[in-house]
Design brief:
The chain is an alpha/beta fold. It has 2 domains: 117 residues, no CATH class; 255 residues, Vaccinia Virus protein VP39 (Rossmann fold, 3-Layer(aba) Sandwich). The chain is 43% helix and 10% strand. It is built from 16 helices and 7 strands. A 7-stranded mixed sheet has the order 3-2-1-4-5-7-6, with helices on both faces. It is globular. The mean pLDDT is 88.
């Protein structure tokens, strides 16, 4: 359902320019132009971020039910390289084959093709709700881990409004603001963050960054970025905590190793063990210490949420000169950063003095980075009724704070 919904969204976006792009592609191909040059010419000439050179559209595909599986694969293969890079994460061929074998492909395709998902009819916020509803339904059916889910928009809006509260930077015309989510999922936090800033300052320049390890969520986020004209390369694919080896001077897992951000927000998986990443995280902790991401300590294996906060702290810009402590002694003169992150109660309460959790909390408090912890009501997240908390962590507190 989700891959076909994304594909229908792209089909609606391309419908207006489809024929003109197809004619231009054939003309350039006949002249012997290489594919990379064709892509550059078409995207500039038609002012599109992606295109499709297949003869098919969703409506044309409906006209040949018996050949739908083969023709649908042909249609997907006709997307420009940047779109294919995103769509391949859906593993369409496998899904199409399963539906065809179950004799369900045409029925499902017909229902989705009947929906008008053009951004003029259904904006990005509406599309986000649609994806969230699909994810919620399938997570409930599959009995997914309670901590491995998306963030309701109401929680995102609260996080973002608190994150930007009192921040003069977002009101400066032309000021570049970098926002990062290391567990970005379908991109809801990033989209709401950008919209919130632009609603208050339409001359702001916002650059979004993220990372996601789930292929389907990554593809949804990448598709949304592609439609909006955002830089798709800013969304890294892979496990943020890393699953490989750590080498001197290089941190495995970090999709943006050379970037630092003004604002960061995340809802990492909570109550989920980090055993798949254990070797890599332990290796980085032991070899790099405070030069890496996990110097302050490591939480117990059954909940890795605090590891994501440590990762985000490592992505902070240097604090301002006025900052008295700061996470890195001697590193001052920067703009500083602000973090909003959603946790369950475990990072707040678990661990006696001297434990990994306690040492992480101590590091944050002794460096004067904790601004506030906000308790949310229960029943806020799908598939779990536990209480959750928003932590605000920053290295640019105002003197009065």
């Amino acid at each position: 359902m989700i891959p076909l919904t994304v594909l229908r969204r792209l089909d609606c976006v391309l419908e207006e320019s489809k024929e003109a792009v197809l004619q231009e592609y054939k003309k350039l191909k006949a002249k012997g132009q290489p594919e990379d040059q064709i892509e550059t010419i078409i995207t500039h000439k038609f002012k599109v971020n992606f295109y499709n050179t297949s003869e098919f559209t969703f409506q044309k595909l409906l006209g040949e039910p018996d050949g739908l599986a083969k023709n649908l694969n042909n249609y997907i293969a006709g997307f420009s390289s940047n779109a294919r890079h995103i769509l391949e994460k859906f593993k369409f061929e496998e899904e199409i084959e399963k539906l065809e074998e179950a004799n369900r492909l045409f029925d499902i395709f017909k229902k989705i093709a009947a929906q008008d998902l053009h951004p003029d009819k259904l904006d990005n916020i509406g599309m986000g709700y649609l994806f969230e509803d699909l994810v919620r339904r399938f997570n409930e059916q599959a009995n997914e881990e309670a901590g491995d889910h998306f963030t309701p928009r109401e929680v995102i809006k609260l996080m973002v409004n608190i994150l930007f509260s009192g921040e003069e930077q977002i009101y400066k015309a032309g000021k570049l603001t970098k926002i990062y989510d290391p567990t970005c999922g379908t991109g809801g936090i990033l989209s709401v963050s950008e919209n919130t800033i632009l609603e208050q300052n339409d001359k702001a320049e916002v650059c979004l960054y993220g990372q996601e390890y789930n292929p389907e969520s990554y593809a949804i986020c990448g598709s949304d970025f592609m439609i909006k004209g955002e830089d798709i390369s800013n969304i890294a694919f892979g496990d943020t905590l890393g699953t490989g080896k750590v080498y001197p001077g290089r941190v495995d897992g970090d999709g943006h190793p050379d970037e630092r951000f003004h604002f960061m927000a995340a809802n990492p998986p909570f109550g989920v063990e980090w055993k798949p990443e254990q070797d890599c995280v332990n290796d980085e902790h032991e070899k790099l210490g405070f030069k890496g991401r996990f110097g302050p300590g490591l939480p117990r294996i059954n909940d890795g949420a605090l590891l994501f906060l440590l990762h985000m702290i490592s992505k902070m810009q240097a604090p301002p000169e006025s900052y008295t402590l700061g996470p890195i002694p001697g590193e001052k003169g920067g703009e500083g950063s602000r973090i909003a992150i959603v946790f369950n109660g475990s990072p707040l309460f678990t661990g006696d003095a001297g434990s990994g959790e306690s040492n992480i909390r101590r590091y944050i408090i002794e460096n004067d980075m904790l601004e506030t912890v906000i308790g949310l009501p229960d029943q806020m997240f799908y598939n779990t009724g536990i209480y959750t908390y928003i932590w605000i962590v920053t290295n640019r507190k105002s003197p009065k704070r």
